[in-house]
Amino acid sequence: MKKKRLTSLQKLTNKNKIDSTQNQKKSIFAQILLLDRLKAFITDIFMIYMPIVYVATYAVLGSKEAFQNSQITLFICFCLYGLITSILFYKKSQSLGYMYAEIILLKDTDDEKSKQNISFFIIIARFLLFCLSMALVFGLIVPFIRKDKRTFHDWLCGTKVIKFKRN
What we know:
Blueprint: H1 8-61, H2 64-69, H3 71-92, H4 96-101, E1 103-107, H5 120-135, H6 138-145, H7 152-157, E2 159-163
Antiparallel strand pairs: 1-2
């Protein structure tokens, strides 16, 4: 049987169909990645931040009322949480939540084969920018506006989050 030759118009429309399905797949993948990031954030809060707050409340201060009245303790707990997650990102490119959600933080480079470590300074700056963008609420909106679904702090720090399953 002879293969039908496609006209240039048919080739163009077939190519557009392929491109549109690829764009749909990228869009769905980006939305799934945003859900994975939310899952990782909630996991980090419960596995890292909550134990810090619990120890500070009952072992250090002794009561809930003392913790509620101590702003400096709350700030120290928050800084300790940021330090622990930053160390995990620096050493393994994943926090506990990222490990659970099977995503990884990488430097945003054109070369996909090179998995370069991100400097500790960049990771700390990324955490501080995350806090700033979430406090001002625009951090919640930015991933839905951008085509690549990158967050504000990832965009400024030159990092990206991708799916990654450890063996």
